[in-house]
Amino acid sequence: MGHGELRGVVALDGPSGTGKSSAARGLAALLGARYLDTGAMYRAAALAVLRAGVDPHDPVAVTGTARRALLVQSTDPANSTTRLDGVDVGAEIRGPEVTLAVSPVSATAGVRELLVAEQRRIIAEAVEQAGGIVVEGRDIGTVVAPDAPLKVYLTADAEARARRRTKQDNDSGRATTVERTLADVTRRDDYDSTRQVSPLRPAADAVELDTTPLDLAGTLDALLAMVEERGLRHERVTG
User: Fold this and answer.
1) Was 16 annotated as part of a binding site?
2) Which residues form the Cytidylate kinase domain (predicted)?
């Protein structure tokens, strides 16, 4: 990938089901930028913990397991892959077992320290090589990239988020119901917003965007307008 149209970092934060992943990938693709799914990195760490037979609530064992795991996250928006110990685990990390384990694993201070350092390395490399990167997660604007020139916090009402996640899961072959997904969304909201380390919350200077009434095209239009307003877009140069 050569230099794209995006200058610097766009930080997209928000809870599950707000359309964050689709919007981040789509925005990166439109601007020829890199894309980083930090949530996939925490899910891969949770999978490593489950494979090791470690209690997700044991911070010492969880941190040790995460440090030993070889985790590689790609930054190509057209082919975002997550590899754990050399194997693509993109489908496995979306399963129900990992979904239950990811909140306590991601709340572990040692895991966050480890992965935040790696995320910052990836971001710096992407900006140097491609000019810009769109990063999605729950603490990008507050912790990972607090100096990002554009921070957006996506929101949506809980039922809309549950419907979106249910459709996404069912389309991917992970059968579920809106009721089950709503319970999971609510549980994760509570866990992520009350954890001591990097709680889910908008950065003080983040722009809040309610995606409840928006489809993907509408969300991308709003994000592109923000990029333009901040002067973060330049003429694309391929090479």
Assistant:
1) yes
2) 10-228
> Does 15 appear as a known binding residue?
yes
To the question of whether residue 20 is assigned a binding role by annotation, the answer is yes
Could you tell me the CA-to-CA distances from 83 to 6, 27, 70, 124, 172 in Å, in that order? 26, 23, 8, 20, 19
How far is it, in rounded angstroms, from Cα 73 to Cα 81?
A: 6
Is there a binding annotation on residue 22?
A: yes
Class of domain 8-228: alpha beta
Radius of gyration, CA atoms only, the chain: 17
pLDDT band at 16 (very low <50, low <70, confident <90, very high): confident
The response to whether 21 counts as a known ligand-binding position is: yes
Rounded CA-CA distance 136/75 in Å is 12
Q: Can you say how many angstroms the Cα of residue 236 is from the centroid of all Cα atoms in its chain? A: 25
84 bridge partner residues: 71, 87
Query: Exposed e or buried b for every residue in 59-94, given b needs 16+ CB within 10 A?
Result: bebbbebbeebebebbbebeebebebeeeebbebbb
Which tokens in the block code for residue 164?
Answer: 């979106």
Question: Is a pLDDT exceeding 60 seen at residue 126?
Answer: yes
32 is in an annotated binding site: no
In the chain, what are the domain boundaries?
Answer: 8-228
Are the C-beta atoms of 162 and 15 separated by less than 8 Å? no
Distance from chain centroid for Cα 53: 25
User: pLDDT tens digits, residue range 195-221?
Assistant: 778 888 899 999 999 999 999 999 999
* 17 assigned binding-site residue: yes
